[in-house]
Design goal:
heterodimer, A: 1040 residues, alpha+beta, 10-stranded mixed sheet, 38 helices, B: Alkaline Phosphatase, subunit A, two-stranded antiparallel sheet, globular
């Protein structure tokens, strides 16, 4: 295996990170003469980028036995030479190499294509002169809560503004309320505010208007749906397995739980525990188990020919690397193949973490099933209550049954004198023809003859079959007969004296044709193994020239009472014969029949009785002979028998029993209709884990045990009676002392609202990641987050009420020059909306959005040929079958996500395909996006529905309508120039459609929703294109 | 915005970009950089839609465009290009242990009691002056033997389709890395102002055994603007390129004129450079609405040309039509075109099924090479032909002289290359008598990719993006070098 394992996860573009970082240093932190050089801030990035690959901790790649990532090694003497001599440049070999002009001497070596800038050299020079002090990497040191530089304002602003002041910058003014209300709505719910929402905010003149709005929005279901979306990128949630066939998987209860978790504001430490180890929590609740599905969201395969060990290994690696990235911002995957070159994770430490996930109980092959175990059945909302109601009803019917049984005046026929006579009952299976079903023949087709044509035993018709020196038969199938107790089959046959058959046979199908009774030369027919039920020899060939009754007990053929017979065949070898009046008879002697006589039931062997009891009675009466029953026990059993078994009470009890059966059926249906979701579980016996050399699944090295990397805080002492497990790992992550968990989490929330994290590389807090733009602010937020009990809503509120978040987002030339990426936040955030928000916004503005929550992924509009050209022929997600009605208009979080061909509305706008965890989405800006927003049926239909709203709700005059539409889509009033452009546009569209009814109608009937008939098609078409423009406005496509 | 402010903004951004690399999408950057850092892309009045990265290409490229014909499902090298007459003597005899040498095999055949050698039933001949060996399955291709380099010793890591397909196209078995085409469009951009830089075609096949994955042409951790754009045979040829019903190009123009003005106001309001990029992208979208139909309209192709591509050339979704469209795309400046053709996972009935696949691709592929050559375009285009791995010498399932199946075999398989930068009429690499092991000049897929990048003017070691704590490269972590001897 190659180095490929290093790549589970996120999708973000970082090609300019490093350079940008240098820029920041040079413009803000440059070490002016006299300033102390700080290792983490100034030196480590230089060494990490240029030196550690060969002089870092990877022992295999180390050159000249020199490592520069540890001070002891860097300053140590080798053969009289020191790489670094603190305070002395002349004696520092590293420095000599850095400034060397000799191609063979210079460091970094010329063939590495790395080169130090003059500034970097200067920084290194100063550092050596100042004593070459080292620091542990910043993010591996637990944060200490810094003092807030200024009181009386939001601490976020205090930190940010201190820095701005140092840069000679000022924050911008607070944004217009209309801008702000849209920004907050989009950020908290993923939906734009309605004009009414805007008005409500504008009229809230209190100083707490923003807080009030935040509080209001956090209570909405839409808040959970929007927040969950970001987490689902991290969790790599999708609705298919992801590899090979890419069949559907049922995982959506996990998705719905994430939504619920944000709505319920489950604290981030709990949120973590449940997802990493919900299955291990004591008395785990349904939700906790569902949450553990986080570990099952990885892609899996069911590809034929795959080697199990390889995939067990890969899944564990994927899970480990995902957890390391999502909670610790570590790119641990590198250590799969070799000691991490840059961060202090050895392969041994990596596989020690991997060991936590290596014993997962799911199979290597997903089986291409929707329910690859372990899974949990999750009742639908309201199902539990419905089941409880049914239980009540069942209990009520049970009572009625008991009462009805009480009423039975039972007389045991065994005790009646004189004893009642046995009764014989015949059931006819053939008379004058076969029952409804399938009839086949060997030889000529079935021939039924009348009395005029030949011998008929009873009724009007009988079978006649002629077979010349061959097997002939009439075969019936498709019936459903039950073999009664003491059943005896009978059939009448007539053998033509002139041409008698040599053998006759009756056969039965009970799932296979394996029961045969034969008379005469049985070898002539020859089927079945003789002297087994397959061929029971009954006797000589029947007498010819007369109707002979053939008779045999069902159990002689091994057909037990209750057996369902679906078909039978009447067979002969050679000759001419007739068949008639075929069926089964049974004799009932009530005095001896356990279905009628209590005494007879009692007398049965225990095994027979036992089978007929319910589990509770079975338990109580196991091994207890009737003699040992107390009178009370006997009465109890007899009542049970009367209610359940006694055929004499059938008439009284049947309706009640039918009612109960119906209820039980309903209950079963609800049980069956429960959702399935993948959950995490460990094997009963843990797998042994090893360092896998070079990341090869079949190349185990040193054995490892569960542990965490040594540079991080240690796990608490191991319990005596068990090994560490995932719950220990989860607790360790959120115990508040972990240097990374809170920082990584708050940084991601920051990124969600500002577009970029305080640490830009939000998936990499290691030495290769970027330094935080505001280290103290990050640490303050992280420590405060822990102090607040990991309260996400509180954190979000803190961010959204900051001046930084609320200020205008206008980029002045000066600001663009100084801070093009807006890392200093002298202006507010502005960026293109995410894929889901763009679609949901259009649906919402068109009034089409359906608020229904949760459930199996739906299939909205999708162009033809997205799934089909890639899908495997036998995949169950090969053909996209579009949904109907409300399925077309649900929020995007509920769209079915097929990993190998994700929906275009997602893919075009940087939505990840969820094949791996994604910490940051890109924000590209492409012509494909323009085409989609202009022409996609979803957006055109939304535009037409928006047009209908404009016409109906926007007032009477064009200008009023333009203003209403503008405000509805952007939340602000248009400027006169904007109104003019829109009015001109409307005029042009009207001219175009005025004389083209056909085109108008085509445009307004695009999509499943029906155009309002009261509006003139040409008018609606014109406004539809106006609305289409509005949905494409830069201001509408962006959060401003 | 007043001109002075705008100029200032322009200047400040320009300085930033020069110092720190690519900043914004497409046009803004191109306008800012002008010619300074561009070798590959030439600025137009509109600016470049697909600019190259500064500093790229690293050196003068031999090939400007890449055409990748991916024969999905793993074609059997023994039946096409890797002639093994010695296997005849071993018909239905065990594959010698010394050959298999304990190497892993898939669980589809690992439980087979026997591993009988299945010699190819197809006749081979030496073709052209170069004498490259080809079987009767590809009669047309024989005619271009002197234009290609046949590599018989390509090898890969994965033994199953999903990871192998992911590897051949992204250099990684695990999903999440950019595809080859995405790397190239990211690095080199494209000269086309009216079409995407990277276009993908997935012709329809009768029996789509094995799946494709969008990750084979998407951009992984690079921005999605470097995704391959699918040229489709059903529905819109490019997603959403058609106006909605009832809307004419003129209507769209009217709407875009207004949108442009309003977005310009938005730019003045927020000063966001992305807004200008957006304005340009909407214009590009509009141009695509014309350029895509023009591209797919074959009515101006000569009769001779159409005939050369074979009888299916006018059938939408056929490999033949994909092939001629490929030429048209390259003609219009598209950087990378990739055709992914399925249906080669022949575990059984191989002789019959491989024939069908060859019927689909043999003539059109040959025509594409000839067509490029006659137009003088082959020297600027690099063409790759091959699958994700090879197939076994031993038979899977029942073996007769006429019928057999073959399991997956990653240890050696054949690919050929032609065009810019590649020697013509050469065979490279050798395998043992059973086409089971490489015996000379192995070419790992990473080396093949390094070769492709080299032909396109890129030093793979200097072409990386930091991601997940690593300088990620198409060619993997270990150094991979171009195969020098096949370079022209």
């Amino acid at each position: 295996m190659y180095h490929s394992i290093c790549f589970f996860r996120s999708r973000f573009i970082a090609h300019k990170c490093r350079l940008f970082f240098l820029l920041l240093i040079t413009c803000s932190w440059s070490a002016s003469s006299g300033e102390t050089i700080r290792f983490n801030r100034d030196i480590r990035p230089i060494l990490s980028e240029n030196c550690f690959a060969c002089h870092g901790q990877d022992t295999k790649k180390r050159k000249a036995k020199l490592r520069l990532d540890q001070r002891e090694a860097a300053v140590a003497e080798h053969d009289g030479i020191r790489a670094i001599m603190p305070g002395n440049l002349e004696e520092s070999e590293a420095w000599a190499r850095i400034i060397s002009e000799d191609r063979d001497e210079v460091m970094p070596p010329s063939d590495s294509h790395k080169k130090l800038s003059d500034k970097q050299k200067e920084t290194l020079r100063k550092w050596i002169l100042q004593g070459a002090e080292y620091e542990k990497h910043w993010s591996f040191i637990s944060p200490v809560k810094p003092a807030v530089p200024q009181s009386g304002i939001n601490p976020i602003d205090a930190f940010l503004q201190e820095r701005l002041a140092a840069e000679n910058l000022k924050p911008s003014r607070i944004a217009e309320p209309a801008t702000l209300v849209r920004r907050i709505h989009l950020d908290l719910t993923g939906l734009p505010p309605s004009p009414k929402d805007v008005d409500a905010f504008l009229s809230d003149k209190s100083s707490k208007a923003v807080e009030n709005l935040i509080a209001k929005l956090m209570k909405k279901p839409a808040y959970g749906e929007h927040m969950a979306r970001y987490w689902l990128d991290l969790a790599r949630y999708a609705d298919t397995h992801g590899l090979h066939l890419d069949n559907e998987r049922s995982m959506w209860p996990y998705r719905d739980w994430v939504v619920r978790a944000f709505n319920q504001n489950i604290k981030f430490d709990e949120f973590t525990r449940w997802q990493l180890a919900g299955d291990l929590l004591p008395k785990a609740t349904m939700d906790q188990k569902i949450a553990s599905g986080f570990n099952r969201c990885n892609v899996t395969t069911g590809e034929g020919g795959s080697i199990n060990e390889e995939w067990i290994y890969r899944y564990a690696v994927e899970r480990t690397s995902t957890v390391a990235e999502v909670w610790m911002g570590l790119t641990a995957g590198c250590a799969v193949c070799h000691d991490h070159k840059f961060d202090p994770i050895s392969t041994k430490e990596y596989y020690s973490m991997y060991s936590f996930f290596h014993s997962a109980a799911d199979p290597a092959m997903d089986g291409n099933k929707i329910d690859t175990p372990p899974v949990l059945r999750v009742p639908k909302e309201g199902a539990l209550q419905l089941q409880a109601e049914l239980d009540l009803k069942i209990a009520r019917v049970d009572k009625l049954i008991v009462a009805a049984v009480e009423k039975i005046k039972y007389l045991d026929p065994a005790e009646i004198k004189p004893a009642p006579k046995p009764a014989i009952k015949e059931t006819i299976w053939f008379e004058d023809g076969f029952p409804q079903g399938k009839i086949e023949a060997t030889g000529p087709p079935l021939k039924l003859i009348t009395k005029e044509e030949g011998p008929v035993f009873s009724g009007n018709l009988a079978i006649r079959r002629i077979a010349n020196n061959a097997t002939g038969q009439d075969v019936y199938s498709g019936g459903k007969f039950t073999v009664p107790k003491n059943g005896t089959f009978f059939a009448y046959c007539y053998l033509d004296p002139a041409n008698p058959p040599e053998a006759v046979m009756v056969q039965f199908n009970v799932g296979g044709w394996n029961h045969r009774a034969v008379w005469g030369a049985h070898d002539k027919i020859g089927w079945g193994k003789v002297n087994t039920f397959e061929r029971v020899v009954m006797g000589p060939i029947p007498e010819k020239g007369k109707w002979v009754r053939l008779e045999f007990a069902a159990d002689k053929l091994g057909l037990k009472p209750g057996t369902t017979v679906t078909g039978y065949a009447l067979t002969q070898f050679s000759g001419t014969m007739g068949w008639d009046h075929f069926g089964i008879s049974s004799t009932t002697d009530p005095a001896k029949d356990p279905d009628y006589s209590w005494q007879a039931w009692k007398k049965q062997p225990e095994t027979a009785r036992h089978l007929e009891l319910n589990p509770e009675l079975q338990k109580r009466f196991k091994g207890k002979a009737p003699e040992k029953w107390t009178a009370q026990e006997e009465s109890e059993l007899q009542k049970y028998w009367l209610g359940q078994k006694y055929l004499g009470a059938r008439k009284q009890l049947e309706p009640l029993k039918a009612e109960k059966a119906e209820l039980v059926k309903k209950k079963a249906a609800i049980e069956k209709d429960t959702a399935i979701t993948f959950i995490m579980a460990d094997l009963p016996k843990a797998r042994e884990s090893f360092v896998m050399i070079r990341g090869e699944y079949n190349n185990p090295g040193e054995k490892v045990s569960r542990d965490v990397p040594g540079f991080l805080p240690a796990l608490p002492p191991k319990p005596e009676n068990r090994d560490y497990n995932r719950l220990d790992l989860a607790n360790w992550l959120v115990d508040g002392r972990h240097p990374l968990t809170a920082r990584v989490a708050v940084n991601r929330f920051w990124q969600q609202f500002f577009g970029t994290g305080l640490v830009k590389t939000s998936a990499d807090f290691g030495t290769q990641g970027q330094l935080p733009s505001h280290p103290e602010l990050l640490d303050w937020l992280a420590t405060q987050f822990v102090e607040d009990g990991w309260d996400v809503q509180r954190l979000v509120k803190r961010i959204l009420t900051s001046h930084a978040y609320r200020q205008v987002s206008k980029a002045t030339p000066a600001l663009l020059e100084k801070d093009p990426d807006n890392r200093l936040l002298a202006r507010g955030p502005r960026h293109r909306l995410d894929a889901e928000v763009l679609r949901d916004q259009a649906l919402s503005l068109g009034g089409l959005l359906v608020a229904k929550r949760g459930g199996r992924g739906v299939r909205p509009y999708q162009p033809p040929n997205i799934w089909e050209p890639v899908g495997f022929a036998s995949s169950n997600t090969r053909n996209y079958k579009r949904g109907k009605g409300e399925d077309l208009y649900r929020r995007s979080i509920y769209t079915f996500l097929k990993r190998t061909a994700p929906p275009p509305f997602m893919a075009t706008f940087d939505g990840p395909n969820r094949e791996q965890s994604c910490s940051v989405r890109g924000r590209s800006n492409t012509p494909m996006q323009a085409l989609q927003l202009m022409n996609d049926i979803q957006h055109v239909e939304a535009a037409r529905n928006l047009a209908q709203r404009i016409i109906k709700e926007g007032g009477a005059k064009d200008e009023e309508r333009i203003c209403w539409a503008w405000r509805t889509t952007t939340s602000r009033h248009p400027e006169p120039a904007e109104i003019r452009i829109m009015l001109d546009l409307l005029t042009e569209h009207r001219q175009r459609f005025r004389d083209d009814l056909e085109a108008s109608q085509k445009l307004i009937s695009y999509g499943e929703s029906v155009a309002d008939k009261k509006i003139m098609p040409q008018e609606l078409a014109s406004w539809t294109l106006v609305a289409n423009l509005l949905l494409n406005l830069d201001e509408v496509v962006n959060k401003n | 915005m007043d001109p002075a402010t705008e100029y200032h903004q322009f200047q400040s951004r320009r300085r930033f970009f020069q110092g720190a690399g690519l900043k914004v999408g497409g046009i803004a950057l191109a306008q800012l950089l002008g010619k300074e850092n561009h070798a590959a892309a030439k600025p137009t009045p509109d600016g470049d839609i697909h600019p190259a990265l500064p500093g790229l290409p690293h050196f003068a490229p031999k090939a400007k465009n890449l055409i990748y014909l991916h024969m999905n499902g793993a074609p059997a090298q023994q039946d096409l290009f890797d002639y093994k007459p010695q296997m005849e003597k071993f018909f239905d005899k065990e594959l010698p242990d010394s050959v298999r040498n304990g190497q892993r095999i898939t669980t589809m055949t690992s439980r087979q009691k026997r591993f009988p050698v299945a010699p190819s039933k197809f006749a081979f001949e030496r073709c052209g002056k170069s004498g490259i060996l080809m079987s009767e399955l590809v009669p047309h291709m024989k005619g271009i033997a002197d234009d290609i380099t046949m590599i018989k010793s390509v090898h890969t890591e994965a033994i199953n389709h999903d990871p192998a397909c992911t590897f051949v196209m992204t250099g990684s078995e695990v999903p999440g890395k950019p595809s080859l085409g995405s790397w190239l469009s990211y690095g080199l951009g494209s000269e086309s102002q009216n079409l995407p830089a990277f276009v993908v075609l997935t012709p329809t096949v009768k029996n789509p055994s094995q799946a494709l994955f969008t990750r084979m042409w998407t951009s992984g951790f690079l921005p999605s603007k470097f995704d391959g754009v699918k040229l489709r045979s059903a529905g819109d040829p490019v997603l959403y390129v058609k106006n909605p019903p009832g809307v004419l190009p003129a209507d769209r123009r009217v709407m875009l004129n207004a949108l442009g003005k309003l977005n310009q106001k938005s730019f003045e309001r927020f000063g966001d450079p992305e807004t200008q990029t957006r304005i340009a992208q909407y214009e590009m979208a509009f141009r695509m609405q014309t350029s895509v139909p023009e591209l797919t309209d074959l009515s101006k192709e000569s009769k001779e040309t159409l005939e050369m591509y074979g009888p299916n050339v006018e059938k939408p979704g056929s490999f033949a039509q994909s092939a001629i469209l490929t030429r048209r795309l390259i003609e219009r400046g598209v950087r990378v075109v990739q055709i992914l053709h399925r249906g080669r996972d022949q575990h059984s009935n191989l002789p019959k099924d491989i024939k069908n696949q060859c019927l689909d691709v043999d003539q059109p592929t040959t025509a594409l090479i000839k067509d490029l050559k006659q137009r003088g375009m082959l020297k600027d285009s690099l063409v790759i032909f091959g699958g994700e791995f090879g197939r076994t010498a031993y038979c899977q399932g029942k073996l007769t002289r006429e019928n057999y199946g073959r399991d997956h075999h990653p240890r050696n398989f054949c690919m050929w290359m032609a065009g810019g930068g590649i020697r013509a009429g050469m065979t490279y690499g050798e395998t043992d008598d059973f086409s089971y092991n490489v015996t000379a000049d192995p070419v790992h897929l990473n080396e093949l990719n390094a070769t492709i990048l080299h032909c396109m003017g890129i030093d793979n070691h200097r072409f990386s993006v930091p991601f997940q704590g690593l300088q990620q490269r198409l060619t993997g972590v270990e150094n991979a070098y171009p195969v020098k001897r096949i370079l022209a």
